[in-house]
Amino acid sequence: MEYQHGGDIYSQEVDLDFSANLNPFGLPEAVRRAAADSLGNCTVYPDSSSRKLTAALAAYHGVPQEQVICGNGAADLIFGLALALKPERALVTAPAFSEYEQALASVDCRVSWLDLREKDGFRLTPRELLEKLSGEPQLLFLCNPNNPTGVSIPREDMEWVAGVCRKQGVRLVVDECFCDFLDAPGACSLIPLLEKYPNVFVLKAFTKLYAMAGLRLGYGLCADGELMERLKQVRQPWSVSSVAQAAGLAALGETGYVRASTEAIARERRWLTGELTRLGLTVYGSQANYIFFRDPAGADGSARGRLYEALLERRILIRSCANYRGLDHTYYRVCVRLHEDNEILIRELKRILTGRDHLERQE
């Protein structure tokens, strides 16, 4: 299977990138200044334990500092967990972020798949989860809200999953990197329940919310001290740069930026969802900063049905979901950008779809 990601602006020339799910308001100015000011410290090694940052994150989330660990992006911690746990069997939802599978493959773990089906709205169903857990996986990866579908799982349902996993001795890793874009982030996060469920490890990142993709900064939270210590032992030292640590500290103070940008993104998500639906595309109920949709007319595989290529010709990059397990070339994901950018996307899609209709009428 080929592992691909959004944001690949290096392989093709684009003017608008809708493929990477980043905050369209860009890096906060205070974070930019903090990163620039930290360059003077680049002649010395960074703090390998990120102590100032983990203390700030602990205060931010209301957990003890020893329950926080920082990494070179959330992906660094995903691979670190695979190495620390070395599970023989794991369960992963599909479709989902490819890094889970890639990390598990690196330790020769046998992966089973929990399929999220279109007929269920790509939602997790308890019956199927219980059936899959009967295969005795040692590790379960869940993304909440899920990527690429944007479907979230309420906290009460997540707590049920955590309880079932604890009872069966399964480590539950919950990727909450997009949770902050939900209308009510606190209604889904398991962070307040970490003490109750030490089998849970929550992944977070600065990447999406603060548009810090190039700085690489993620973190994990877990109440299992033994696992946290093991994770520290298997990871490379100095994996988080001084620049990233300084940027992260500054970002935690940007509460106004977070509030204003997430409110604006929610408004744009509703607008963009409506416009895509009016174009005859099948739009699923994304609750994050991206929208997952399908082009039913593209199922015949003809060139006119491939929106990815048609938009790329117009220097607009969207995320084809063809390489996601369980999906095909008719599924796409677009991030929610600023209104003027979203208007351009809709305008070009209208032209493409109108052209398709014209060809069909000629036939």
From TrEMBL:
Keywords: Cobalamin biosynthesis, Lyase, Pyridoxal phosphate
Known cofactor(s): pyridoxal 5'-phosphate
One Pfam family this sequence matches: Aminotran_1_2
The keyword Metal-binding is annotated on this UniProt entry: no
Annotated signal peptide: none
Alphabetical list of NCBIfam families matching this protein: L_thr_O3P_dcar
Protein name: threonine-phosphate decarboxylase
Organism: Enterocloster asparagiformis
Upper lineage: Bacteria, Bacillati, Bacillota, Clostridia, Lachnospirales
